[in-house]
Amino acid sequence: MLIAQLSDPHVMAPGQRAFGRIDTAALLEQAVARLLRVEPRPDVVLLTGDLADGGAPAPYRELRRLLAPLPMPVYLLPGNHDNRQELRAAFPEADYLRQDPDFLHFDLDLGACRLLALDSLLPGSINGELCERRLAWTAARLEEAPDKPVIMAIHHPPFTTGLAKMDDYGLTRGGTELAAIVARHPRVERLLCGHLHRPIQVRWAGTLAMTAPSTAHQMSLDLRPDAPLTMHLEPPGFLLHQWIEGQGLVSHLLPTGAFEGPLPLGGAH
Ligand SMILES: [Fe+2]
């Protein structure tokens, strides 16, 4: 089982650019093209939020167009820039987005694993939250199928990263409770997050948690406590998570862009 995790594409309406300059559609197109060259081909694609900017129908139609070349199942998770109703409306065939009338959390079988995707959206806010009902849903799902490893996903990381402004814009409710739930279930193999627009790993609640880069713009790596929120157009990318029987989940970072290689090194390195 090979899972590609794309995050924070921030697709705009056709012809619009993020911050007036970043062609997020072209950058998602680049990520999709790279994904299609991965061999063996990923079995599923998971997008960890901030799918489309603005909450209107047009960016979601554009997102759908950009994801259409992917032949494998694609699973969409909302972020703070998303709108639940518009997301559902743009993907009417996506039954997994209709497991709950109020939230876009879902659980699915992924071969040897289960995917448990949480909805941390708090409409109108950059911050995220997990209310009592979403926490109860998560706890109940973890009580089920106790023999299967779980890959959990959420847009807002429930941990701090040292990127001060993004930590301010984090999960403001439910993070401690989620950590307590996960700590009771050692079979949670990984927590996959978005929101940070750069790859970060941390041990959290007894499991390994990580954030994905954006397929578009990256948050600046500035660890000063008073650092302003800025972005860099560093090479974007996505994560590839491979389930290896007897080992567990092995995660790779794949930058997207034009890079030379493979180089003929004749066996030396
Ligand atoms: Fe984002």
From TrEMBL:
CDD domains for the chain: MPP_GpdQ
Domain called Calcineurin-like phosphoesterase: residue spans: 1-199
Signal recorded as keyword: no
InterPro entries the record matches: Calcineurin-like_PHP, CNP_phosphodiesterase-III, GpdQ/CpdA-like, GpdQ_beta-strand, GpdQ_catalytic, Metallo-depent_PP-like
Keywords of this entry: Hydrolase, Iron, Metal-binding
Pfam family, one: Metallophos
PANTHER family: CYCLIC NUCLEOTIDE PHOSPHODIESTERASE CBUA0032-RELATED, PHOSPHOHYDROLASE
Family statement drawn from the similarity comment of this UniProt entry: Belongs to the cyclic nucleotide phosphodiesterase class-III family.
Protein name: Phosphodiesterase
Organism: Aquibaculum arenosum
